[in-house]
Specification:
By secondary structure, the chain is an alpha/beta fold. The chain is built from 23 helices and 14 strands.
Length: 642
């Protein structure tokens, strides 16, 4: 409260000083003119305001002999003139005249024409007022600005970026952090959690490790996709280790001012050394740790100087004992190799997306404070959400809780969970389509995906078919794998291409080639990209097991160096295009064959889907099984593609 009072006082004084400094000197003089004139103040104000005369006109009156008396003010800059002329009705008038600078002959002219004139001295100002306006107010103004600069981070809305503290570290410091997260709150990443539990044990019981000559790691780098729990692990170790904790984002080191980033790194490690043993957490370290000299341009920039300082502080001539640096990034491929070596980051812990059992554990953690209905199965939900990170799963259950509140329910049921999953995967549901030709075409398109995926042995099973628009899609078909697939076989890739082309194939068969629509544009992009990867990256073509492209091919700043372009002859490029077209053409013919062989069941499914708009995968398979034999998923798939 006192800080706010001082702030308000300083702001008020600053405003007063600005107003005082802004008052022109002529304004004071004008006040002095009015106060020192021999005539009454009321009369002068009326005459002066109502009657003004230019200096040229004044000279003409002077030559005509119409000027009777002149009173000079403001060191001869202003004059009050008494004149009488035929133009004025021969009545005496009091007129104000502004004398221009350089009219030094005016006194001589007045004497020449025998005019009665008098010079009035400027008003003598109070000494205290003069001191206040010329000395005290500027001092208060400058002092107030300095105070505001030094304490700007403490005011409401302050961001800690005071000009007086640009070189200071912006890291948040907590001597005994209470993040509210413990290791029991983390699931699905047991290996990474075990590594951090060992660090906590080292901090609490160092003798157990030093007796066998072990040293505490200087740095731990958490690597993994976004949302997998890297920051959550940092919060847990901050809470469990019970040592001082510094947290900062990599981008906070980089500023537009030269040398500020390096200064902040020095200040951060200086504070950390004073509070050792402690933990320093740098989130998104790739913002400052990007490889030096990568890409186009010079290498002596502010970011690289900041990185050099970070390298020196972590493992330089002056050793920081007892300071553990924990970094987190999802772009380890662009980090500088000097940053990754042992002695700086001794451990790299990969935090991958959770597997099925990991997703079950994560869902159990986030479902602790949520009333779930008896029909909700976390195992089924985990099976349906492959590729979801821990953050995605937490968001899913939160969306389900919001939907339950919207529907005025006291518990979360299976309906809310499924709807939340659909919202996250496909987007928010739009208005149902009207019964038009477009709706029938979308229905056939989605059934084309579903029928081809169901009748291929190496493809995942259908989870749901819907005609409810979500996001930018008019309809959607979901497939759910039986297990997490980290490795894909050639037959599985071909099955994916055939299923993706199933929607366009059914448009060709049912509506004819001229009626094929643009609805399969995204499908064609996926198919072309997947087929090209089979040829250039996976060695699944007649060209042979040769890697002709890599994941970062042609992208500057990813992995170092500039893009080198194609590294093979033009004849190989022609063969690549030929093989891609061959794969896509084969898969298209395969999709058309499946559609032609199952036209009866397709029409039946489409008619029912138009009525109910959303069909469960089990119901779809039951309909299909009445007209055809479903493939045995356990039987190895043999492709006829050569």
């Amino acid at each position: 409260m006192p800080r706010n009072i001082f702030r308000n006082i300083f702001i008020g004084l600053i405003l007063i000083s600005i107003i005082s400094i802004g008052i022109k000197k002529s304004d004071f003089n004008e006040i002095g003119i009015i106060q020192n004139n021999s005539k009454s103040e009321t009369e002068l104000n009326q005459n002066v305001v109502s009657s003004r005369m230019t200096y040229g006109r004044f000279l003409e009156y002077l030559e005509m002999g119409w000027i009777k008396q002149v009173d000079l003010y403001d060191n001869g800059r202003n004059a009050i003139v008494e004149a009488s002329s035929p133009e004025l009705g021969n009545r005496p008038q009091t007129i104000r005249v502004e004398i221009p600078v350089g009219a030094s002959q005016l006194i001589l002219k007045l004497k020449e024409y025998n005019i009665d004139f008098d010079a009035h001295p400027a008003e003598s100002k109070n000494v205290l007022i003069t001191i206040a306006s010329n000395v005290l107010i500027p001092i208060i103004f400058v002092g107030g600005l300095l105070y505001l600069f030094q304490n700007s981070e403490n005011f409401p809305g302050g961001n800690g970026q005071s000009p007086m503290n640009l070189g200071k570290s912006t890291a948040r410091f907590e001597r005994r952090p209470d993040t509210g997260v413990v290791f029991d709150d983390i699931a699905g990443i047991d290996e990474a959690k075990a590594e951090f539990e060992e660090i906590v044990s080292f901090l609490k019981q160092p003798d157990k490790y030093t007796i066998v000559g072990a040293k505490i790691p200087k740095g731990i780098l958490l690597v993994g996709p976004p949302g997998t729990g890297k920051t959550l692990l940092a919060k847990a170790i901050a809470n469990e280790a019970d040592v001082p904790f510094f947290s900062v984002a990599g981008s906070e080191f980089v500023e537009m001012f030269i040398g500020i980033g390096a200064a902040r790194v020095r200040d951060l490690f200086k504070k950390a050394s004073e509070n050792a043993p402690c933990i320093v957490f740098i989130d998104e370290i790739d913002a400052v740790g990007r490889e030096r000299g990568a890409g186009v341009g010079g290498g002596n920039d502010e970011r690289e100087q900041t990185l050099n300082q970070l390298l020196t502080e972590m493992d330089g001539f002056k050793e920081n004992k007892g300071v553990i640096v924990v970094g987190a990034t999802n772009r380890v491929d662009i980090l500088d190799s000097a940053l990754l070596r042992p002695g700086r980051f001794d451990r790299q812990i990969t935090v991958n997306l959770p597997d099925r059992l990991g997703r079950v554990g994560i869902l159990k953690v986030h479902a602790r404070n949520k009333p779930l209905g008896e029909d909700v199965s976390l195992i089924q939900l985990a099976n349906r959400t492959p590729g979801f990170s821990g953050a995605d799963l937490a968001n899913l259950l939160n969306e389900a809780a919001i939907l339950a509140t919207r529907y005025k329910k006291t518990s979360i049921t299976k309906n809310e969970v499924n709807e939340a999953a659909d919202r996250i995967i496909g987007g928010i549901a739009g208005a149902p389509m009207e019964d038009t030709k477009n709706k029938r075409l979308v229905a056939y398109h989605e059934v084309g995906h579903a029928i081809t995926g169901t009748l291929l042995k190496s493809h995942d099973e259908v989870e749901k078919i819907t005609l409810v628009p979500r996001g930018g899609a008019k309809g959607l078909t979901w497939f759910t794998p039986e297990e997490d697939q980290s490795l894909l076989s050639r037959s599985e890739l071909l099955a994916r291409i055939i299923t993706t082309l199933g929607g366009r194939a059914i448009e060709q068969v049912v509506f004819g080639e001229p009626e094929v629509t643009t609805g399969a544009s995204s499908d064609l992009q996926q198919v072309t990209n997947l087929a090209r990867q089979m040829v250039t990256r996976f060695g699944m073509s007649s060209i042979g097991p040769i890697a002709l492209e890599d994941e970062n091919n042609g992208q500057v700043f990813l992995g170092g160096g500039t893009a080198q372009g194609l590294e093979f002859a033009d004849s190989i490029a022609d063969r690549i295009d030929e093989q891609v077209c061959k794969i896509v053409s084969y898969c298209e013919q395969k999709a058309i064959e499946i559609v032609l062989d199952n036209r009866v069941v397709i029409d039946l499914v489409v008619e029912k889907l138009l009525d109910i708009e959303t069909m469960d995968g089990a119901e779809f398979r039951e309909l299909v099984s009445t007209y055809t034999i479903l493939p045995d998923k356990n039987t190895p798939y043999v492709s006829k593609f050569d």
